[in-house]
Structures are given as structure tokens and as C-alpha cells.
Amino acid sequence: MRLLSQLILPSAALVVLAGGACFAQDWPQFRGNANLTGITTASLPATLKVLWTFEAGDAIESSAAVVDGTVYVGTQASELIALDLATGKPKWRFKTKEGIGESSPAVGLGMVVVGDLGGTIYAVNVADGKLAWAYPTGGEIKASPVISGDRVIVGSYEGSLFAVNLKTGKEVWQVKTNGPVHATSAIVDGLAYISGCDGVLRGIRVSDGKEMVTIKTGAYTGASPVMVNGRTYFGTFNNDVMAYDLKSKRLLWRYENTQRQFPFYSSAAVTDGKVILGGRDKIVHALDEKTGKEVWSFATRARVESSPAVADGRVYIGSNDGRLYVLDVKTGKKIWEYEAGSPLSASPALVPGKLIIGSQDGKLICFGA
After folding, report:
1. pTM of this prediction?
2. CB-count exposure of residue 250 (10 Å: 0-12, 13-18, 19+)
3. What angle do CA 115, 64, 32 make, to 5 degrees?
């Protein structure tokens, strides 16, 4: 076990265990941790029920963050909202200049950070919802920020990855790529990895912005990379899923659905020897971590852009068919489903006893016992 020094939390330590699982009371960013594993040891009830819903007024594509009993989520109504986890009552609402799309809040050092479709990064005080600083990137932001020490790492459609000081909002460095930066950075061993829209996987040193790893994948990639045991896995718009060894920069395997050729937009979770992710082929896929061969698949009724979260041997994932699915990790068999009535492209956030997810019709739903 090693402490994730890259991610500083005010209330609880986040520890990454063997295989990329994490033990945490909170879910402080997109995919739950800096490795983007989407996996937690927090327990959820075997049977879920709706505890509360919140009407945000416009679509929620942003995935929630949960820290210290507060839920943070962005909306297309140009708001970053903080809600009480127990009741769903709003604590405060912060107005952004433009709508918040897929960018999901990150929480650390008393701040919550998010980007909007106008290209601005905002840092807001968690205590009162007051603006600490705003930084314009010059291009819309769909990537989610990641907090690494005292820095915020986030990409924009301007074509760059930015590091901004979390306390001051001043730019630390900027790395230019050859296309929009849509993916959220995975932070491992001091490097921020982005799977690029320019067909290049890059590892950028957080301390100074120097590019330390360059792997030409040749694939336009919107999904964020997951990092586990020196390997990375991600889906692409070339209708495939790739696995790379980071040290040798070697392609380990490549998977594609030979019967249905559609892009993979969902970011993967790696657990129990499986790489699990959704596809625009309407299917949730589980691939063997070592070989890339399909272990199981589960068909939904519409494309799956939500990224899976995993706890207690169960996969939690939304679909654009308007349903939240709970699947067995080992077999892919459906354990439970809930019909939300509107596409679920956001990803679930998991904390002990509760699951939070937003829908395209503007509802934020909290499930529990």
C-alpha cells in the first residue's frame, strides 16, 4: 500500500491498494482517485432505493464529487452546486459564465475546482461557495480537473494541458498538443497521463511540465486512461480498446467488437483481472486484463458513455437508455436496474452506503438503503 501524496484531502486519506482499488470515505474527483480506477472498497447496500432527488434545471453530464458529507456537481444551467449528502438540500450555488458539460469537480485543500464550456477553470471555496479565482484557458473544457499537491491539472479544447496553482490561480505551466485535450489526466508517480485526441498518449511531469512519455497510438481518444500496475487501458474512436505497458511503451493488446463497430467513450475500470467499460455499441464489455479477450458482455438499449464504478464485486454504470445498471463483476449478469427516464451519460460516484448520479433531464439522484 502507498499513500497517494499527489492528492491531498482535508478530511480523509486516500490509499491505493494492489490492483488499483482505493479505500476512501470520499469520492473527491472524476473516477474517485488520481489513477482514475473508478474502484472503491466502500460498501453499498445490496438493494438500492432512491433516498433523494434534486432538480438542477438543466442537463447533468458532470459526474459528482463527494467530500465531508457534501456533494458537488456541475450543470448545463451554468452552475456548480453543493448539496448536503444526507438530505439533498443545496448548501450553495455558484454561477459560471457558461454551462458545465462533462467536466467533473475535484475537491482538495478547501477548494472545489471545475471547468466550463466557455473555457474557464473556477476554484470555489467549499465553505461558502465564494470564488477564489478563475483562469481562462481559451477553449471549452470537457476534461475534469485533477488536484496534484498544490496544482490543478486540466486540459482544454484550446489544445493544451494546463497546470494552475490551486491557491493562487496562476499558471505554472502549459503543454501544447496537436488537438483538443478531452481526457482527464491520470496521475501516477509524478506524471500526468493524457490519452490525446491527436493520437498520442503523453506523460507530463507535474513538477515542471516536461513531456517524459510519448506513445503514438494512432487513435483519436476521448476516454481517459486508467493506470494500474505500470499499464494503461483506454478506449478510442477507432472502435477499439488498447492496453500499453508504460515502461516499454509497447502495445500489449487491442480489442474490437467485430460485430458492431462503434467508438469507446467510457473510461475503464480495472478489477478482478478485468478491464470493464461501456461502448457506443450499447454494450458493457469486460476484457481480460492480460490478453484483451472478452470475458463477458452485457447489452443495454442505447450507447454507454457513462464510466463504470466498482464496489463489493458489483459494477455500477449508467446507459443512455435511461437506466442505472448493477452487474456482477465476475459474470456480467444483471443484479438490479433503475429506470431514471432520461439518458445517464454521467458516471456514478460511490461513498459508503450511497451512490450519486446525474441525468440528462437535470435530476441528481442519490441511492442508498
Report:
1. 0.94
2. exposed
3. 95
